[in-house]
Design a protein that fits this description.
alpha/beta; two-stranded antiparallel ribbon; Rossmann fold; 5 helices
Length: about 200
Amino acid sequence: MDKRQQIRTELKQRRAEHSKTQCQSLSRQICTHIQTEKLFKNKSRFAFYYPVGNEVDLLELLYAAWSRGKQTFLPVLANFPKGNLWWIEHTDSNPMYLNRFGIPEPVHPARARRTKLRSLDLIFMPLLGFDASGNRMGMGGGFYDRSLAKCYRSNNSWHRPIKMGVAYSWQQVDSIPTEKWDIPLDAIATEKGITWFKS
């Protein structure tokens, strides 16, 4: 088992050791920290994700965004290219369905008009683990890295949305081995607060 897989296995076990009640309590603290950030107060277009299992639950923050008249978006599995995500606007009237991984997505036509990443202000990213340098470890599918690659690896840096990981503090590890295609975080939000990484 390589180092990345070893860390991923350990983090899955660590997350499974925490109860749903514990995770919900910590999720509420994380939502509170984000709501008090100037970024959340001043920006208007946010990409959320739908939590599964014991992932940090930001639905309370999503509802707060709606109450403040902000636009919210959720990722859906792309029809093309395969293995990528599209972001679709999500409102309180959107019906939902389960994708092939059992994750809720807003119902959308096959040829849905996807949202351009550069039009978003902030992307909240779920994760399995992170380190003090802003490196992120996901579940291993590579969906976020592939989907964000063009926006963050092009020479044109005009309006790139902020990438904020959301996690419990016990998901931090000493160091995550990186690959050339990995896209680091700009910030991480935990129940202890928000940490910004140097670009």
